[in-house]
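re: that chain from earlier
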Amino acid sequence: MTLPEKLKQNHTLEDSELKKLLKCGDYDYELFELADSVRREHYGTSVFIRGLIEFTNFCRNNCYYCGIRRDNRNAERYRLELPQIMECCAQGYSLGYRTFVLQGGEDPVYWDSGMTEIICSVKTKYPDCAVTVSAGERPEKIYREWRNAGADRYLLRHETATESHYSQIHPPELSLKKRIACLYSLKELGFQIGAGFMVGSPYQTLDNIIADLRFLQELKPDMAGIGPFIHHRDTPFADFPDGNVELTLRLIAVIRLMLPYILLPATTALGTLDPQGREKGLKAGANVVMPNLSPVVVRKKYSLYENKICTGEEAAECSGCLKKRIEAAGYQMDFSRGDVIR
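^ sequence. v structure.
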């Protein structure tokens, strides 16, 4: 079977056509080939490398799917001090990294001067690097403070664009309306923003996924994190099945076609469910990989889901392994800032 001509010509489909495409694997080869050609047109064979620093696994929230949720009493909590974070950056910089991603739970300790000091310190020491923050929902004044301190990008996955589904996977005190308001606030403040969602999360339907795609078209983010849901034993969703790799790959390809300029990671979650998952993600249109620069002693503690890969590798070892895998897939590691090209 061949892809619909409409998709080939203008990369758009109606909802019913999208559903058919996402359900059926008969189109996968052509779909991935088309998505890959579009990413090559915009970004060549570059795979942008971001150094991930998971600086805290404390979180005030109680999301039903997340291993570092507030009520998980089995989580071994930690916070990295500024010197530890700077050491991670120094190691990454020496390896060529020019983007650092500061990711953590919604930890109130970092709301005020703490996070601002971290951002400022990294930007002062490494002015040629981009700083990405992923620390959840914060008041606009905090986002503004972090932007003024030098943060370039902000990652905040919307998780689902359907209100009813949002309430099924989050506690009552969290709302989709607030999450979306945060994304638009970040955009107005001048951040390069990233949204995204889990594929195969509990109670998710194809209609929910279509709503996610339409939301991304409306928001027009610079980045989108699309990864499969993976259960965690210490959450209410411990017995739910994991997400589907093939559907995740189709969605990566569809988003590449819908938003040709977008930065799309081949996620660690993909590599966790499939040994070749990240390579398949790249071939489906992804163009970002985020190796872990966190100290090895804390990596297993940042456990959002089960069996996360690369928790025992040193940064240099991880970088060398990725280089081989990326080149074997037909692409090249790119250590530049890798800003979005619209």
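The radius of gyration is 19 Å.
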